[in-house]
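ARCHIVE CARD
CATEGORY: sequence design from structure
SOURCE FIELD: tokenized fold
FIELD CONTENT:
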């Protein structure tokens, strides 16, 4: 009569093989940390809205990032903004941030502009889009080429 351990051995071996494959393929571990600073020259593809002509991405570790706009007419130009990011493929990350601008009228609330970008680490390209609440209009978009400044 087989012992309990003998009955469990094939299951344990299968589980070990699956766990080993998961770890080997990176499924059971966090994504490789994206670190360093990249400066991107961005070209607007739309005639409306504002896409910054230069965007710097600073990845501190696998959890925190900052975005810096250049060429902005507001007081935010050159100041780091907190950004969120996550991996969407082997070579691409989605980066999101919000710019809060001063109100334009008496008693008006501050204007929030939400940006979403996809950063491709392989070809160092950045695709930027303004996320608009107006679903009828095409959102402003831009593309850029990035250079790694620090690693």
């Amino acid at each position: 009569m087989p012992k309990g351990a003998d009955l469990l051995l094939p299951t344990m071996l299968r589980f070990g093989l699956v766990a080993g494959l998961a770890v080997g393929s990176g499924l059971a571990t966090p994504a490789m940390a994206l670190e360093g600073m990249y400066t991107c020259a961005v070209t607007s593809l739309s005639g409306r809205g504002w896409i910054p002509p230069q965007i710097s991405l600073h990845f501190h570790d696998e959890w925190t990032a900052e975005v810096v706009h250049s060429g902005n007419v507001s007081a935010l130009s050159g100041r780091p903004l907190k950004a969120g990011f996550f991996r969407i493929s082997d070579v691409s990350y989605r980066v999101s941030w919000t710019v809060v601008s001063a109100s334009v009228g008496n008693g008006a609330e501050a204007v929030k502009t939400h940006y979403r970008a996809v950063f491709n680490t392989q070809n160092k390209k950045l695709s930027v889009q303004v996320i608009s609440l107006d679903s009828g209009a095409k959102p402003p978009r831009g593309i850029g080429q990035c250079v790694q400044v620090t690693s």
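CARD ANNOTATION: Helices lie at 4-25. The CA atoms of residues 68 and 79 lie 6 Å apart.
SHELF: design records, drawer C
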